[in-house]
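so my prof wants the structure for this chain in the tokens format not the other one, which i didnt know existed until like an hour ago. anyway here's the sequence
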Amino acid sequence: MITLQKKEDIAQISERLKKEQRTLRFRRLKSNYGLLIGATIIILLIVLAIIGPLFTPYGPYGMKVLDRLLPPSADHWLGTDEFGRDLFTRIIYGARVSISIGLIVALLSSFLGLIIGVYATYYKILDHILMRICDGLIAIPGILLAIALMAALGASSFNVIVALTVVFTPNIARIVRSTALVVREQTYIEAMHAQGASNSRIIWLHIVPNTLSPLLVQATFVFAEAIISEAALSFLGAGIPAPEASWGNILQAGKLVIYKAWWMVVFPGVAIIISVLSLNLFGDGLRDYLDPRVKLKQKKS
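here's what i got, hopefully its the right format
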């Protein structure tokens, strides 16, 4: 009878602790304004990119030469471009391209960087080979490497994803490797070895989960950097080919008529700034949420 009562008391205490932990996490989330603001803006941008075309009667490729370079008005909220295309519609479709490319690049580079970083940590031969390759790629400025790859592969959305994935994967692999090195030296990893656990079990069940927090934070920054890089490539004529809408090639077209049509440069530039700023806010807030010690150190310093 006493044993059953003790078990019930332990279960109640455990349930209360879980409830308090959920409450604490919710309070931390509510107080993390950067995370909330960044996530809200990102969600709004994604929703606008998906349903935005429903609010405009124009298509992204329909040209009306007689309406070229019209200023913002009730008919064309953000004006028109050099071919008479509605700029609001072009920016919305450009958001689909830029955000989707940034997201895919962040996911691919995070996945590849995770595999490279973890296995380089665990196997010294792979460490020497893979890390030297990563060092060589990191030594080349990212935008120059991306331009060189685009020149070799050709201008298309798929090739932009490939080029930017190659650019960002080495940095993520380095971050994962540095985190995994610390985890590998922990006592419980040695205990798993002593119990005869296989290398794959140790890697995927014990090392990988402990590298996900810094990986998620870095992925948000890669997302933002990929949007900027895609816009830069398209601006230079090495990214998304015309007439497909992209924030970068809208800016590239706007630079030729900047004195006649300021809206062609301002509005896509503002879209890039808002998206990148929101992702950086989200990344900083996520870092503080996943590791509160970082915020405490910043306050002490």
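also thought this was worth mentioning. The chain has twelve helices and no strands.
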